[in-house]
């Protein structure tokens, strides 16, 4: 595999797709790592015919893996029935999916659902929900430092990463970023706050769980001061963490959650789900989306959630997450500091800033993971994985870590020799 990887850039077909990226696509992304052409289960194949074990699953999107029969049948049957009608009309899949989400999210009868096409759109809708709740008297919206809520202007303002803001300043006003501590919550939340946005696990920051008791404190403080608690479940929802939604581990009830990624299992869809008082804030004409809630997307998402439930994949995520954590720790690599996260959203913290090297080595061994930071790997496989996939993952990750450890040691040796000579 590694020799094939090294030769890829010299191949004419590889050069052609790279030229396509350079010449035909806007330069808002780095050069892709490779060109993928086919997937099945937890495997993908590139344009050179090389197979990879996919333990990123489209960044926590492919809940059922690639080309799952339930997903394929749902897309095919609904595309042949009714794909789009606009929101001047209702369709059965839309109502059915809303009721399923309400049941799984335990919203009660007062819960309501708005459908859109992506996570950032769901957070834009939630931003407007917060503004409506503020009503001109509550002007502040709080989010956390290092958070990530999307790339559109409202969602970007919510994102607690100043480097992402700088090219697009000034940001939408009224958003403040605070540390992810209970002390910061207590110091910041008062009657001027319209809403607090939080992710149960900060995926883009390096798979960082919230501190123990944070969500319970956030719920108590927002209720006391009349603010909304809005939880971004875009990466943690749809069973990813071993519960249907990440907030359910804490035993609290939010005012709203936002969903996307795993909800559609690979088909673009997002949602804003409201609870209780927050369900009365929107009125006809206050928000909308041409494609949001179309019958194709909602039918597919309904089928994905149905299969997750039927196959017991939420429990599988909980159990396999423990198994994966143990498998990573059993490798015994000096490069691994700890494993964090929940269910099948895990972060492997490294003892040195070599995440990109590990990513490249893993790819050379036929494993796809992700490096959201210099010393962290993100692992988010399909919820369908079992013993065979975890064993293959552990073997490939161990080989990648060993490669990088040898290279790291070789680099350190000359430096140590020079110090001794001096």
What does this structure look like?
The chain is 41% helix and 18% strand. The chain is an alpha/beta fold and 422 residues long. The chain is built from 14 helices and 17 strands. It folds into 2 domains: 32-62 and 318-421, Aspartate Aminotransferase, domain 1 (Alpha-Beta Complex), CATH 3.90.1150.10; 70-310, Type I PLP-dependent aspartate aminotransferase-like (Major domain) (Aspartate Aminotransferase, domain 2, 3-Layer(aba) Sandwich). The longest helix has 35 residues, at 387-421.
Based on helices, strands and strand pairing, what is the structural class?
A: alpha/beta
Question: How does the overall form come out from the CA principal axes?
Answer: globular
What are the low-pLDDT stretches, counting only 5+ consecutive residues below 50?
1-12
CATH topology of the largest domain: Aspartate Aminotransferase, domain 2
Mean pLDDT: 93
| Count of helix runs | 14
Q: Please indicate the percent range of residues in DSSP E strands (runs of 2 or more).
A: 15-25%
Tell how many strands the DSSP assignment holds.
17
Per CATH, the superfamily of the largest domain is Type I PLP-dependent aspartate aminotransferase-like (Major domain)
Q: What's the domain count?
A: 2
Radius of gyration: 22 Å
Distance between the termini: 42 Å
Strand order of the largest sheet: 4-12-11-10-7-5-6
């Amino acid at each position: 595999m590694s020799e094939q990887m090294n030769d890829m850039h010299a191949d004419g077909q590889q050069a052609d797709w790279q030229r396509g990226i350079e010449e035909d696509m806007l330069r808002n992304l780095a050069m892709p790592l490779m060109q993928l052409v086919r997937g099945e289960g937890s495997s993908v194949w590139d344009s050179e015919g090389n197979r990879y074990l996919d333990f990123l699953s489209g960044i926590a999107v492919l809940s059922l893996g690639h080309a799952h029969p339930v997903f394929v049948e749902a897309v095919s049957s609904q595309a042949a029935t009714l794909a789009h009608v606009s929101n001047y009309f209702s369709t059965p899949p839309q109502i059915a999916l809303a009721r399923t989400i309400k049941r799984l999210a335990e919203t009660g009868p007062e819960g309501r659902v708005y459908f859109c096409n992506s996570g950032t759109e769901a957070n834009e809708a939630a931003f407007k929900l917060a503004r409506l709740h503020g009503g001109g008297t509550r002007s502040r919206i709080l989010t956390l430092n290092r958070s990530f809520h999307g790339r559109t202007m409202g969602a970007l303002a919510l994102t607690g990463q100043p480097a992402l803001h700088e090219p697009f300043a000034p940001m939408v006003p009224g958003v403040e970023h605070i540390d992810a501590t209970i002390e910061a919550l207590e110091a910041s939340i008062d009657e001027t706050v319209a809403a607090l946005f939080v992710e149960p696990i900060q995926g883009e920051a390096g798979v960082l769980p919230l501190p123990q008791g944070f969500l319970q404190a956030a719920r108590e403080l927002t209720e006391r001061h009349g603010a909304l608690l809005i939880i971004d479940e875009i990466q943690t929802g749809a069973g990813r963490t071993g519960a249907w939604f990440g907030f359910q581990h804490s035993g609290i009830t939010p005012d709203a959650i936002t969903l996307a990624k795993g909800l559609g299992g690979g088909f673009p869809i997002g949602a804003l789900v409201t609870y209780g008082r927050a369900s009365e804030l929107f009125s006809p004409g206050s928000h909308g989306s041409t494609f949001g809630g179309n019958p194709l997307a909602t039918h597919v998402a309904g089928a994905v959630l149905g299969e997750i439930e039927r196959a017991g994949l939420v429990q599988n995520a909980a159990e396999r997450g423990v198994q994966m954590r143990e498998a990573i720790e059993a490798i015994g690599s000096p490069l691994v500091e700890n494993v964090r996260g929940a269910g099948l959203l895990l972060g492997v913290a490294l003892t040195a800033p070599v995440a990109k090297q590990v990513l490249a080595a893993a790819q050379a061994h036929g494993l796809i993971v992700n490096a959201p930071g210099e010393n962290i790997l993100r692992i988010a496989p399909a919820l369908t994985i079992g013993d065979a996939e975890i064993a293959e993952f552990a073997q490939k990750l161990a080989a990648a870590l060993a490669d990088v450890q040898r290279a790291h040691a070789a680099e350190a040796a000359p430096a140590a020799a020079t110090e001794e000579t001096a």
